[in-house]
Amino acid sequence: MNIGILGAGQLGRMLALAGYPLGNRFTLLDTTGNPSAGIGEVIVDPDNQHLAAFLDAVDVVTYEFEHLPVALVEEIERHKPVYPSSRAIAVCQNRVEEKALFDRLSIPTPAYRVASSAEELEAAAAELGCPVVAKSVTEGYDGKGQAVLKSPEQAHEAWAQIGHAQLIVEAFVDFVREVSIIAVRGRDGQVVFYPMAENQHEGGILRYSIAPLPDLDDAVQQTADSYIRALLDELDYVGVLALELFQTRDGALLANEMAPRVHNSGHWTMDGAVTSQFENHLRAIQGLPLGVTRALAPTCMLNVIGREGDYPKMLEIKETHLHCYDKTEREGRKLAHVNVLADDYADLLAKVEACADALPGMPAPRWSFTP
Amino acid sequence: MNIGILGAGQLGRMLALAGYPLGNRFTLLDTTGNPSAGIGEVIVDPDNQHLAAFLDAVDVVTYEFEHLPVALVEEIERHKPVYPSSRAIAVCQNRVEEKALFDRLSIPTPAYRVASSAEELEAAAAELGCPVVAKSVTEGYDGKGQAVLKSPEQAHEAWAQIGHAQLIVEAFVDFVREVSIIAVRGRDGQVVFYPMAENQHEGGILRYSIAPLPDLDDAVQQTADSYIRALLDELDYVGVLALELFQTRDGALLANEMAPRVHNSGHWTMDGAVTSQFENHLRAIQGLPLGVTRALAPTCMLNVIGREGDYPKMLEIKETHLHCYDKTEREGRKLAHVNVLADDYADLLAKVEACADALPGMPAPRWSFTP
Predict the structure, then answer these.
(1) Distance separating alpha carbons of residues B31 and B48, to the nearest angstrom
(2) Which of A9-18, A141-150, B6-15, B117-126 has the lowest mean pLDDT?
(3) What is the ipTM of this complex?
(4) Which of A108, A237, B76, B227 is least enclosed by beta carbons within 10 angstroms?
(5) What CATH class has B175-357?
């Protein structure tokens, strides 16, 4: 089966690497003019001239980036199956629709308001109680298009800085940690869940994910499973879905946002789980049985951001796995990640610190648990 | 680092798949006119016109097939580093040199003679005691160029059938099982060993490999380690070396042959070991630290020969991993392999039988042990 991917960055690259062993071939459609995947047939199409050729080449279409014009995806759906569907994209690329879906499915979220002017932003900030986070409704990615308001008086400045017609304003959550759940739904409706990960961001960019969590109550995993299952079934979803959540001091989960694709917080599964999220996404979209999601060992993923790490030094550390994206260095750019496995969490955290030392500018890890 | 591979079949394909995550790019030189790798830059060069372009493109050269003209490899070595070296190729492609090296390093082998005529073959058969196996000294691969003599009188017929100027004649060994050891030597001389595998052939083609072995005495693994270490050090070898052995009823090991490359009996490591043989070969040849060779679980590899299997059925079986080579079907052709993992050997053997049922023409597995 020839798989078409909209986008030709590191997620497309890792999908292709997972799919060759399944006998797949890949055609990647790049609209940026700057593809980095370095694998498969890459159609560079910044002026949107080659969609027909792309569609001719492929049997099924998926994507690595959900901020695509919905009309384009609907057009593609008229010719070839697209998984996840345009409906998933439409919901996931719009924070208002996403929150409305969470509400409809009784998935708790932080308190929020929608603001369509600086005045409404100011009123929302006052009502929710500062600090609040204001986010553009569309095109948010990796912390761009966001602002934190420490008082309602900052509303006009924040409104101008973000520069969007509509914002979501969210109350700050006193969370213990950020976590995520990744699940996969097959074309036959079968659903499998990965163990939840704890994620550490800095500057809006993911730095560390660790899974499974040594102190996670089974009931919390089951709650997360039930939330993401509700989303998958409601959207008649096919493929990998990621849901980011806050865990509060009392253990409760509040949904933050979701992504209709393979997700950075699931990269640990490439070495730490029986079947990676990439392979399971591909199995799902081509109607194959889904693979086992069990974790093999305590695993931590470290993102390499902006500058390459000292990889020989990191590979000296036992049971580390390198995943380079073959990109040039640029501030804030995701260049690679490293997965570290260990027999126990004390050993894992020691190895992670050693890896972090080999990564320029990597913030120190902060974990919510002590092993 | 751009890695050049001589050959563009499934071993080159799997090397490339293991190397992209290390940040490598690949240029594969195919001299057959019929490459199947389907990945990397493939230079199709049946008339040997493009060696200079290949050498310009790459930083280091390796190969997936040792039956290459030694003069060609020596020529390449004058321009770029080649691992393993032309000396390893020269030894491994010539059974007389290989046996002489085993003898020199006190690695036991079945009793053997060299025959340069039908008369010498007849005399060797009489001396060793029939049955004997006669093998062409060069270009043997997957059971081609071999004959079994049940009596010395068959010598003339066997000589004519094999049609080579020199043969190795080997006494039959009353072995319990065929096993193999795979080891990796780095550019700094570091050596790591994989757990030994038991291999089942039919018609000269590998069908099953299982590792680690539940009934293998540590001392036997250490003996195999010492044999292959002697070979690696003697050849100042860099990369993966595979050594096939017979294990006799009393537990002793007799060397059969070796291959200076990633090896079919090591494909189980792709899912069953912390670091695959492919990644470790690439780490070795570019001077990176070698990865951990520990097995993750009891693992069995099944080769898919001649006709594709029922992959959806096989992927229904938990913890199976498919590795397709994207080739067209042809009798005796290696098309794919499947790795099956399990918690224990009883479970593993049951799953292997279920997988074998989904493979047309697969012989039933026969194991030397009962779980």
Answers:
(1) 7
(2) A141-150
(3) 0.95
(4) A108
(5) alpha beta
